[in-house]
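Narrative of activities, Objective 1.

The group set out to show that a structural description can be obtained from nothing but a protein's sequence at a throughput compatible with the screening campaign. Below is one input-output pair from the validation batch, recorded exactly as produced.
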Amino acid sequence: MARLLYIHGFLSSSRSQKALETADWIAGRELPIEFLCPSLSNDPRRATAQLAAIADECDGEPLGLVGSSLGGFYATWLSQTRGLPAVLVNPAVRPQDHLDAYLGPNQNPYTGEKFEVDADFLQSLAAIDVDPLPAPEKLLVMLQTGDETLDYRQALDKYAASRQIVENGGDHRFQNYDRHLPTIMEFLRLP
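Output recorded for this entry:
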């Protein structure tokens, strides 16, 4: 069976609005797609181990990825190291350089998990930063210029060789995400 792995962002969870919209869209059409959306650890090493384990379990079966924000960064890593198609929604680019405001103790508001953003945390992110991209054609990048959290131009540059959908306005959540779900499924080659 085909599977779609939704990868949520920093300080988010499997209950993110886009994840729920994606799951509802698949269920509402009774598509033969298993929707996967684990609540990832806030620790990058644990999160990437969780994602690698899911990819291993799906080995040989169709698997598409959708990642939002930091989840887009993780989806880039998983896509480019495993040869999987991925859709990136307002993805983080070089998050190891942009988390200064979170240095020190943190708590995920959805899961309650406490964690520390420190030099080791940032190095863990740097270790999986794929640059250059070996297979940019495996990526569809969706950006909104009104993203108040991330500078969309960084993603525009990093993913210049990938297919891109760029919309004026919007925000970090990516307004009207659900209307892009047919395009997402088509790009991922999911039924």
